[in-house]
Amino acid sequence: MTTKANSPVTAGSIVVPYGHVIGNEKWRGSEVAQRLQGKVRLIFEDGLGLVDFHLSNRTCILLISEADLVAGDEFKRRLVKFRNTSSLRGIVIVEKTQISDQYYLGVQKLVVLELGMVLLPVANQGEASQLIIQLVREQSRDRTNPFLGKQRTQPAEPAVLQAAQHIPGVGKTKALLLLQRFGSIHRLCNASLSELEQVVGHTVAQQIYTFLHS
Fold this sequence. Notes:
Radius of gyration: 17 Å
Strand order of the largest sheet: 4-3-5-6-7-8
Oligomer: single chain
Order of helices and strands: HEEEHEEEHHEHEHHHHHHH
Number of helices: 12
Shape: globular
């Protein structure tokens, strides 16, 4: 069955083998690209359009930088267009810094409440690359051994832990519990309400589920 684990899947018109990331040419030479190099198999291509990074399993990353937030509303138009035209599973990663913090609530409202997409805040491009690496490894591991993720109990990577703590009602303790239970942000985002309730109780589970899926 290992051949199935290595088989490519189609993400729109882009075919992404498991363990690979196809990056938009505009990110070549960036900090996030440099940190991905050597951790995943990164290939740059022109013509990716609205998407910044294609992962396997019809998942893609839309990365909103600090500069994008400060520059104006162009990133909002890009997100809305993606949501209206793409059947891919888009994950929005946003640089939430001291400079861009004032714009974050507006982004959160747009992405989570209006577009119904997953939003993961990071402090910098280094953390963004860690999240992407985590998602790629999770997808590859699931294809190789679907039970392995359930057995993992090692501490969560800092960027993943920090992203989980940004979810309303989730502090460091609950974030650790959630990531120990689900293994990754990817699995957490796909958890059912009942699965969340088993870890953090009904009230917080409802907050988390609403935040991720509204």
